[in-house]
Specification:
The chain has 79 residues and is mainly alpha-helical. It is 65% helix and 8% strand. The chain contains 4 helices and 2 strands; from the N terminus they run H-H-H-E-E-H. Strands 1-2 form a two-stranded antiparallel ribbon. The relative contact order is 0.16.
């Protein structure tokens, strides 16, 4: 799996907030930039990371696995 480091912090923030707009606010970037970053990850990896509807956003099982792995790596790198 090819890593796209610039998009991974955005993915983590969206997953934490369950919202593109809240993640954008927290990161100080536009909502379209957040959407583009997530779409780029999904296109690059050919995986769907989020379930999207007009009123909700949630991680897919693949997205949850990725988030768990990233948090594990983040924790390990802090040791």
């Amino acid at each position: 799996m090819k890593s796209l480091p610039n998009q991974l912090p955005i993915f983590i923030e969206v997953a934490k907030e369950n919202s593109f707009s809240a993640a954008a606010r927290n990161l100080g970037i536009s909502t379209p930039a957040v959407s583009k970053a997530i779409n780029k990850l999904e296109d690059q990896w050919k995986l769907k990371l989020f379930h999207r509807s007009s009123h909700s956003l949630s991680l897919t099982s693949v997205g949850q696995t990725l988030l768990t792995e990233l948090r594990s790596e983040e924790h390990t790198s802090e040791l």
